[in-house]
Design goal:
The complex is a heterodimer. Chain A has helices at 45-52, 75-85, 101-111, 117-127, 143-155, 173-189, 201-205; strands at residues 3-14, 17-29, 34-38, 60-65, 68-69, 86-89, 161-165, 193-197, 209-214, 217-220. Chain A is of the alpha/beta class. By secondary structure, chain B is of the alpha+beta class. In chain B, strands 2-3-9-6-8-7 form a six-stranded mixed beta barrel. Chain B has a six-stranded mixed barrel with strand order 13-15-20-17-19-18. In chain B, strand 13 and strand 14 (554-555) form a beta hairpin. The chains are: A alpha/beta, B alpha+beta. At the A-B interface, helix 2 and helix 3 of A face helix 14, helix 21 and helix 24 of B.
């Protein structure tokens, strides 16, 4: 699934001042391409990601996914679209606390009414090396395990686009590497268009394209 | 610095603070309004106590005083007091338009020594010694306005009372000498005492009381005089009352009612405390991480506890403001509902005592309910900040004793409100029994809901799994809703039972008329008359005036408490002990009676075979006076001493309105004793009843006739008035329940904003998210409503069984409506709370620190 960003603008009010984060940003990502976005803290990486996920509204510009302008969609429509096409991985994992890891992975499939949610979720967790943690609650799992569950959840509905915000940011180096191996392997295996926001040059190198967000514009590195 | 922290914290969490205050003040409002009403009633009664008794001190007895007793009375009282002597008894008043039972008060020139009777044309009393009381020295009477309404009697109209032909001199507009006016079964009339002799109304065995009222020159001596009189009068049937005890006595029905209102108010208070505690728990859940950080920066544990304890105390203090404001609005409504039960104009105001109570309860109550969570701060381990796993913000309670102060406070309030250690403790016991049942059923429900993991529909599956996994909040909601449904159901259930009792019996067994004071020599003529008129009497029961001298050889003494009774039980026992008794004799017990202990009478008394005659005692009467099977009682019957042994305890169905007695003696012992008879006449139509009353009053003017249906209606009217005020308080408790529900639901929704938005992130539709939440609360509330309503049946049945002697009737409509209502309202609250959350941007919520 291709992703086209046209003249995307986003600014925030800070008291009487206006802080422009994205200033007429343009980007074209091909189907199955893996793109890393790097930049300093506060450069707007996460803001860009939330606009691509339809979690926030841009001031102007368009986000076009496979020819569909998602910026023009209502919140209800974008929610449905996101559920079917976009998988998101957060730095903070954001798992539902009172659901087990298996249920967390089943949840998006069940929302879409997909059959065999349980079997597919079990298979995904097995792929993530979590077959022995399927019935654990997030509070009983380590950060690495939680993030692997989050990756499995993001992949559960076979999304066309995968958005990841510093997925290894909360993990130690060893665990982080292990988690990112799983992440890239899955992205390749399922041919998902992937956008990875990261501080790490090493991780960025594992993507086909690296873009730096600077003063509201994306520059190819 | 510390105070600045507190101020900053309070300002920062102002929304929590306001809602906490709102919750707490809602519960306090009912309680404090009632306290203020009680204080106001007490003040009014104290101010009017002399008017109520119409004297400083009164001696009354249901017979003439003996010469010795009269001399003793003169010796103690004559030296420094003014006296008024009156007689009071029931009699039939007949006019051209019909007959009515009336309570006659035969007075002298001095009556009333205090207070006033407001007549439609003048006011008679201490304030106005003149004009002359027109009824004194004339064949005229003052009548209560009910007679004007019922018989159309107007000023100047004539009527018959016994042998007397009297004229209505005036209508009584207001009588300050009576407090609980709705309770009387017959309207009063006032006549000149000197007319009694020619009236023929007081004969041997007639039910009447003689009252000697005294106005002391120095009213400080009242208690001394009372003590002296109690020493000289050995018969406990001689009542010596002071203005204070009379006002307490005359308002005891209202006092009982306000006791029960108080208990309902305590439930509202408990529910609001539950809500406030839950809000504080949510607040602390949000603050616990911050507290851990402060602790890691060097803040001492006790200081951290004090920081939040001080906030709670300040909020408790602030809850005083809305409490007093709303109570001031509620008070007039409460007094409007209850004012018809007292002749005084009650203008209740928020008293200092009530404000002080609100302050104490607000401050101490807040602290006590939040104590379990405050202590948790002390246990907090800042080291957990370093843990790799997410910092747990949940507050669990591992020390059950932390709930003890709250329990003790609740128990103390219940005992104080009911003025009874027994009732208060039973209430608390039953309340916690109900809580325990609700807890157990709630737990079972959550276990059942665990099986939802097999469900296909994700909304049902995760709603129910969520409920079972968030156990403490699910149980809190379940219990609050269950209690609310129980409360709102109990009163209507009892009312239906009681009304049905009267209704059913009205069709079948309850008689139309009740005749008493039938003299021995009138028995045959009355029987003949009834036979002529083709009336079948339910049977004539003899009634003999007696007094108990000894129980098991121990003198049966009067019981009094100069400083008032500490509990309702003491008061009840003294009331029963101090009044004279009417005893009867029968061959066997009647259909409206049932032996609960011991055996039936063995037949007629046979002095050659039996050491003692057999006695049967009504079970509750025996319980109050601590009599049991096997006890030997000694009576004085018109100067003759008789001994007997208790052979059984009986349960009497009083609502059958059959002639029943507390004490029955075996047939053949008292048959020759001077006596009167009472009888009941079966159901008849209104016209026949009117005609018969008129004829009986003409033919046998001394016989009193009670219109049973009219009395039943009066009782129902009073019970309606009482239940309205109880329902008002129960509605307040239910409203508090809903505010608690709202607090819990919105607190839950707020706490779960992140989770609900996560559903949006993974693609759940808005309607699905709303349904997800609505299903949770509808499931909980439906089950809680159903269990609460079912428990209300059990509670109503138990109350009916023990208090109303089994007048329970199953009414299924109200419980079902309640369960559905609770369910619908909960669903609506959840729906609107979820709408608020789904409209929020998921990004804002996801960016918030969890």
């Amino acid at each position: 699934m291709s992703l086209l960003i046209k003249n995307l603008e986003k600014s925030f009010n800070q008291g009487e001042d206006k802080l422009t984060v994205l200033a007429g940003l343009n980007l074209d990502i091909k189907n199955g391409e893996r793109v890393a976005i790097v930049g300093q803290s506060g450069s707007g990486k996460s803001t860009l990601l939330s606009l691509l996920a339809g979690l926030d509204q841009a001031d102007s510009g368009e986000v076009v996914v496979d020819g569909v302008n998602i910026s023009a969609m209502s919140e209800e429509q974008i929610t449905e679209f996101r559920g079917q096409n976009i998988g998101i991985i957060f730095q903070q994992y954001h798992l539902v606390a009172h659901l087990t890891s298996l249920e967390n992975v089943m949840l998006p499939m069940e929302i879409l009414g997909r059959p065999d949610a349980e079997a597919q979720a079990q298979a995904l967790l097995k792929e993530m090396g979590l077959e022995h943690r399927m019935n654990q609650f997030p509070s009983r799992m380590s950060g690495g395990e939680c993030q692997r569950v989050a990756i499995a959840r993001a992949l559960a509905v076979r999304p066309k686009i995968l958005l990841a915000d510093e997925p290894s940011g909360n993990l130690d180096t060893h665990t982080g590497e292990k988690v990112m191996d799983i992440f890239f392997n899955a992205a390749k295996k399922y041919q998902i268009t992937t956008i990875l926001v990261t501080h790490s040059e090493e991780l960025a190198k594992r993507c086909q394209k690296t873009l730096r967000l600077c003063e509201g514009q994306l520059l190819e590195v | 610095m510390f105070l600045m922290w507190i101020r900053r914290e309070l300002l920062r969490s102002w929304k929590f603070g306001l809602f906490f205050i709102f919750n707490l003040s809602l519960g306090l409002t009912g309680y404090i309004s009632l306290e203020a009403f009680k204080v106001s009633l007490e003040d009014t009664l104290n101010q009017n106590s002399k008017a109520i008794l119409s004297a400083d001190l009164a001696v009354s007895i249901r017979r003439e005083l003996t010469e010795n007793e009269k001399t003793a009375l003169q010796r103690v009282m004559a030296k420094d007091s003014e006296m008024s002597e009156t007689y009071e008894f029931f009699a039939m008043l007949s006019s051209s338009k019909g007959s009515r039972l009336v309570m006659v008060r035969a007075i002298d020139e001095n009556y009333p020594l205090y207070g006033s009777l407001t007549l439609s044309s003048s006011k008679v009393g201490i304030q106005q010694k003149t004009p002359k009381k027109e009824i004194i020295g004339s064949n005229s009477a003052w009548i209560y306005p009910e007679l004007e309404a019922q018989l159309g009697l107007r000023k100047g109209d004539s009527f018959q009372l016994g042998q007397l032909q009297l004229k209505v001199s005036d209508i009584v507009a207001k009588d300050e000498t009576q407090t609980f006016r709705a309770a009387s079964i017959a309207p009063r009339i006032f006549i000149d005492r000197s007319l009694l002799a020619q009236s023929g109304l007081i004969q041997f065995g007639s039910t009447y009381s003689v009252n000697y009222f005294f106005k002391l020159k120095n009213d400080q001596l009242t208690e001394d005089r009372k003590t002296e009189l109690l020493k000289v009068f050995k018969d406990p049937a001689i009542q010596v009352e002071t203005a204070k005890t009379a006002s307490e006595e005359s308002s005891h029905q209202l006092a009982y009612l306000s006791d029960y209102l108080g208990l309902v108010a305590i439930i509202a208070l408990f529910m609001s405390a539950l809500g406030a505690a839950y809000l504080f728990r949510l607040f602390m859940t949000e603050r616990v991480r911050e507290v851990a950080i402060l602790r890691s920066l060097g803040l001492q544990a006790m200081r951290a506890v004090s920081l939040y304890a001080a906030q709670v105390i300040i909020l408790g203090f602030l809850s005083l403001i809305p409490t007093v404001m709303v109570s001031s609005l509620l008070l007039p409504l409460l007094s409007e509902l209850l004012s018809s039960l007292t002749p005084f104009d009650l203008h209740p105001v928020m008293s200092l005592k009530a404000v002080f109570m609100a302050l104490i309860l607000g401050v101490i109550g807040s602290f006590v309910i939040c104590l379990p969570f405050l202590l948790k701060i002390q246990d907090l381990k800042p080291a957990r900040l370093f843990a790799e796993e997410k910092f747990s913000t949940s507050i669990d309670i591992h020390r059950p004793w932390v709930f003890l102060p709250g329990l003790i406070l609740f128990w103390l309030l219940a005992v104080a409100e009911s003025s009874s250690f027994k009732v208060g403790s039973l209430f608390v016991g039953a309340f916690f029994g109900v809580l325990l049942i609700l807890y157990a059923v709630g737990m079972a429900l959550l276990v059942v809901l665990k099986s939802a993991r097999k469900r296909k529909n994700w909304i049902f599956k995760y709603s129910w799994l969520g409920l079972s996994r968030r156990r403490s909040s699910s149980l809190a909601i379940f219990i609050a809703l269950g209690l609310g449904s129980l409360l709102i159901n109990v009163l209507p259930q009892l009312k239906v039972g009681l009304q049905n009792e009267f209704k059913t019996d009205a069709v079948s067994k309850v008689p139309s008329l009740f005749l008493f004071d039938i003299q021995d020599e009138q028995l045959a003529p009355v029987q003949d008359f009834l036979q002529q008129e083709k009336f079948e009497s339910i049977g004539f029961s003899p009634m003999i005036r007696a007094r108990i001298l000894k129980i098991n050889d121990q003198p049966y003494e009067r019981k009094s408490e100069e400083r008032g009774f500490k509990t309702r039980e003491e008061e009840m026992e003294a009331r029963f002990r101090n009044r004279g008794i009417n005893i009867s004799y029968r061959e066997k017990i009647s259909a409206s009676e049932k032996i609960v202990e011991g055996r039936n009478f063995s037949g007629n008394y046979d002095a050659s075979k039996q050491k003692y005659p057999e006695i049967s005692i009504e079970a509750k009467y025996a319980g109050r006076l601590r009599m049991k099977v096997g006890d030997i009682l000694q009576f004085d019957v018109q100067g003759v001493q008789i001994e007997g042994q208790v052979i059984n305890l009986r349960k009497v169905k009083w609502t059958s309105f059959q002639p029943n007695f507390f004490i029955l003696v075996q047939n053949g012992v008292l048959n020759e004793a001077p006596k009167t008879f009472i009888t009941a006449l079966p159901k008849m139509n209104e016209a026949k009843k009117e005609e018969l009353q008129l004829q009986l009053a003409k033919k046998f003017p001394n016989i009193s006739i009670v219109d049973v249906q009219r009395t039943v209606n009066e009782v129902l009217k009073i019970s309606d008035q009482m239940s309205w005020s109880l329902e008002l308080m129960a509605a307040l408790a239910l409203f508090t329940g809903y505010v608690v529900l709202y607090s819990i639901v919105s607190g839950q929704v707020n706490l779960r904003r992140w989770e609900l938005n996560m559903l949006k992130v993974v693609g759940a539709k808005f309607s699905a998210i709303s349904n997800y939440l609505v299903i949770e609360f509808v499931t909980l509330s439906f089950c809680a409503g159903l269990i609460g309503a079912s428990l209300s049946m059990v509670v109503s049945y138990v109350i009916s069984y023990f208090i109303f002697e089994g007048s329970f009737i199953f009414n299924w409509i109200w419980p079902i409506l309640t369960a559905l209502g609770v369910c619908l309202l909960s669903g609506l609250i959840a729906f609107f709370a979820s709408r608020r959350v789904v409209r929020e941007s998921p990004l804002v919520i996801l960016q918030e620190e969890r």
